[in-house]
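Figure 6 in text form: structure in, sequence out.
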């Protein structure tokens, strides 16, 4: 009986000691996981603040564009008013010219019938009407030339102002994209360094950051293709995008190039189809990448979202 009691006590002590060891290990792992989650939340908050700042700048730029559009509308109204005035003057010139022709014909007829008595009067009337008509015609031409120059100058000023504004907006957009690329590149490096220090064992690979960077790189490449290469910041941003893509390749990722290629039904993509008269009938060409296809070690981890132009 005593032996059974002693054996039970030993078993109970051993079980308690083993449970305490397991609990200690779990507490340490939970603490480590909480720290990792806190650090990732801080990174997300920083990115949210930067995104909010960028959205604020874009709103200000949109307000500037709206103001310029209103100015443009007012100037167009002024141009339309001047054009109407020119049309009225042209109509007056035409009416005066017709009246002049009628009067000349009338004077000529009267001269033929009453040449002996009304010769001086007819000559004076003809000269008067000719001078009046020439003066009116000359005044109309001068007004037309003056108004034409004013309209042309106004149009040129508006176009120049719009070009300057567009250039400034593009430069600001490039600055924002350069900052964003630097942030994304830093995040990638931190993620890769963390993976080297704490490699995942029997856990699914987390591609969320890489996919986000891939989407931003695709958007930036599309914007760059629409801008003049001489704009300040264009070359630097192009180089930064290339560095990120090289980083992807070095770590087993691939952004599949689809732009400008033929579309076929077997592609694993989400496609929007748009008719296009400039493309050969029956042809289907990928003309826009909304989301890129991303492969990791040869396997697709994100399907592409594209826009396909169909020839009609």
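Output sequence:
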């Amino acid at each position: 009986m005593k032996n059974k009691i002693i054996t039970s006590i030993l078993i109970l002590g051993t079980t308690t000691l083993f449970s305490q060891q397991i609990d200690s290990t779990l507490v340490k792992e939970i603490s480590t996981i909480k720290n990792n989650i806190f650090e990732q939340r801080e990174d997300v908050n920083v990115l949210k603040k930067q995104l909010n700042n960028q959205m604020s700048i874009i709103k200000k730029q949109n307000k500037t564009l709206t103001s310029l559009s209103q100015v443009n509308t007012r100037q167009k109204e002024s141009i339309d008013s001047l054009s109407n005035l020119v049309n009225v003057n042209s109509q007056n010139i035409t009416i005066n010219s017709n009246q002049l022709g009628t009067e000349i014909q009338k004077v000529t007829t009267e001269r033929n019938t009453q040449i002996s008595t009304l010769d001086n009067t007819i000559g004076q009337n003809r000269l008067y009407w000719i001078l009046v008509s020439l003066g009116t015609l000359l005044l109309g031409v001068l007004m037309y030339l003056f108004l034409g120059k004013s309209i042309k100058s106004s149009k040129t000023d508006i176009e120049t102002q719009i070009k300057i504004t567009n250039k400034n907006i593009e430069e600001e957009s490039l600055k924002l994209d350069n900052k964003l690329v630097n942030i994304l590149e830093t995040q990638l490096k931190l993620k890769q360094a963390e993976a080297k220090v704490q490699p995942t064992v029997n856990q699914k690979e987390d591609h969320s950051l890489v996919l986000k960077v891939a989407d931003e790189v695709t958007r930036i490449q599309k914007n760059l293709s629409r801008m003049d290469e001489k704009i300040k910041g264009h070359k630097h941003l192009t180089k930064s995008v290339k560095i990120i893509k090289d980083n992807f390749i070095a770590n087993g990722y691939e952004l599949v190039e689809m732009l400008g290629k033929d579309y076929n039904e077997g592609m694993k993509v989400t496609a929007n189809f748009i008719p296009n008269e400039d493309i050969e009938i029956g042809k289907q060409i990928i003309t826009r990448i909304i989301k890129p296809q991303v492969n990791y070690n040869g396997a697709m981890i994100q399907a592409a979202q594209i826009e396909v132009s169909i020839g009609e």
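Caption detail: The two ends are 97 Å apart (CA to CA).
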